[in-house]
Amino acid sequence: MIEKIKVKGIEVGIKGLKEIFEIVKNMNISDEEKKKEILKKVKSENYIPSEVEKDFEESLWKEFRKYLGEKIEDEESPFMEIKVIGAGCPRCKALLEETKNALTELGMSVNLEYVTDIREFSKYGVMVTPALMINKKIVSSGKVLKKEEIKKLILQFKK
């Protein structure tokens, strides 16, 4: 199974993360050794560029501590975060395409995610799809916005 974590504000997928955390949790070694062991095990299943290993190690350690039940603050992304939320219907896909077109015209780098898991909708407070979320705020729900409308919304939230 692939789990998502944030490394320097960018979401990346890590294969086998929960299993690795479970193994390391039960090891009788120091926290520093656990930190190194997590990175070693993750590297055995996933490609991690050497120049960002330290960033991955810190992010993995934060995720491990969350896994253990510690309260950890999420790091702020340097990029605008946009989520198109919908179950995969034609209207939801249309909003996703309009959003991509708006971003292309604006020439912006953002963290764009298409959320199709119905169980996630309530976490975001979405009752009607498709929905558009910019920087954790629902800006539209229940309609397919046109590219120009999306561009205006994006520019309002630009960091």
CATH topology of the largest domain: Glutaredoxin
Q: Shape, please? A: elongated
Determine the CATH superfamily of the largest domain.
Glutaredoxin
Whole-number average pLDDT? 90
Give the number of DSSP strands. 6
Q: What would you call the structural class? A: alpha+beta
DSSP helical segment count:
6
How many separate structural domains? 2
Assembly annotation: single chain
Low-confidence stretches: none
Q: Describe the strand arrangement of the main beta sheet, using strand numbers.
A: 4-3-5-6
Q: How would you spell out the order of helices and strands?
A: EEHHHEHEHEEH
- What can be said about the biggest beta sheet? 4 strands, mixed
CATH structural architecture of the largest domain: 3-Layer(aba) Sandwich
Radius of gyration over all CA atoms, rounded: 18 Å
Which strand-content bin applies to the residues?
15-25%
Distance between the termini: 33 Å
Description:
The chain has 159 residues and is an alpha+beta fold. The chain has two domains: 2-67, no CATH class; 80-157, Glutaredoxin, CATH 3.40.30.10. 47% of the residues lie in helices and 21% in strands. It has six helices and six strands; from the N terminus they run E-E-H-H-H-E-H-E-H-E-E-H. The protein has helices spanning 17-25, 31-45, 53-67, 90-106, 118-124, 147-157, and strands at 2-7, 10-15, 80-85, 110-115, 131-134, 137-141. A four-stranded mixed beta sheet has the order 4-3-5-6, sandwiched between helices. Strands 1-2 form a two-stranded antiparallel sheet. The mean pLDDT is 90.
